[in-house]
Amino acid sequence: MTTRAGFIALIGEPNAGKSTLLNRMVGAKVSIVTHKVQTTRARIRGVAMEGDSQLVFVDTPGLFQPRRRLDRAMVAAAWGGAADADVIVLLIEAHRGVTEGVERIIENLGEVAQDRRVALAINKIDRVQSDVLLGLTKDLNDRFPFAETFMISAEKGYGTDDLRSWLAAELPESPWLYPEDQIADLPLRMIAAEMTREKLTLRLHQELPYQLTVETEKWEERKDGSARIDQVVYVVRDGHKGIVLGKRGETIKAVGQAARAELEEFLDRKIHLFLQVKVRPNWLEESERYSEMGLEFKDGN
């Protein structure tokens, strides 16, 4: 039997649907999905099997104009993920078309892609008419020699099977890189932290842009098969701590319940989740926080 395996980088602007597509491809929730931009911080790998091919997806942070240290680390991680991959998929939103951000990504693609195959995936196709899609497809293919173009809806699953089949055939011949039943190489501690961060993001909406992070401090396996997970939510100001806790602790309690329920479903066992909120004014400037998120800490502002 000839097996294939390789890395596939999903790149695109923030909110283009990369995390939704990754979760659709893998068939499990390994990447956090919210309607806030910039929710994906680390390069999350999800593993999918298609026939005799093992597809390892690198879900990169959205590519955007960086303004501060965390932004730059995220953009560097995104391009690094693309440069390390065997195949690249550029995901764009059908209804937004060729934005300035998409233009910038395409300008940089030539340098990063070099001899790699790059597919174009036009996402959220249910939001536009077919003639708009055809025009957009022609425009984008005039700008860059994409190996293949796919019309998809990552959320509803349209076209994603065709994309997965094409990717499986494009990967190099290789032994599988992960055990067949492993869906993500992110440590469970980080997946658990990401799930809690997603619930916070959904609950708080615009109140805390991304001035918070969640870390799993302790993970204790219990004899009855359950696990106790202790997490800390770091915020940069006292005022933020009050927002995260909510009136009489209602917000953090609701977040904890939602995160625990999702963790129990994901891990298929009972979870005891304990959340603390701590003020850490300079967490955005601490190299350890970046290591926790799988990002590179670069000197300079």
Layout: helices, strands, pairs:
Blueprint: E1 4-12, H1 18-26, E2 44-50, E3 53-59, H2 69-84, E4 87-93, H3 100-113, E5 117-123, H4 130-143, E6 148-151, H5 160-170, H6 188-204, E7 212-221, E8 227-235, H7 238-245, H8 250-267, E9 271-279, H9 287-292
Parallel strand pairs: 1-3, 1-4, 4-5, 5-6, 8-9
Antiparallel strand pairs: 2-3, 7-8
Helix pairs in contact: 6-8
Characterization of the model:
- The protein has 301 residues and is of the alpha/beta class.
- The chain folds into two domains: 167 residues, P-loop containing nucleotide triphosphate hydrolases (Rossmann fold); 105 residues, GMP Synthetase, Chain A, domain 3 (2-Layer Sandwich).
- The chain has nine helices and nine strands.
- The strands form two sheets. It has a six-stranded mixed beta sheet, sandwiched between helices. The chain has a three-stranded mixed beta sheet with strand order 7-8-9.
- α6 crosses α8.
Briefly, what is this?
Helix content is 38%, strand content 23%. With 301 residues, the protein is α/β, with parallel strands linked by helices.
Features of the shown structure:
301 residues, GMP Synthetase, Chain A, domain 3, 2 domains, 6-stranded mixed β-sheet, 3-stranded mixed β-sheet, 9 helices
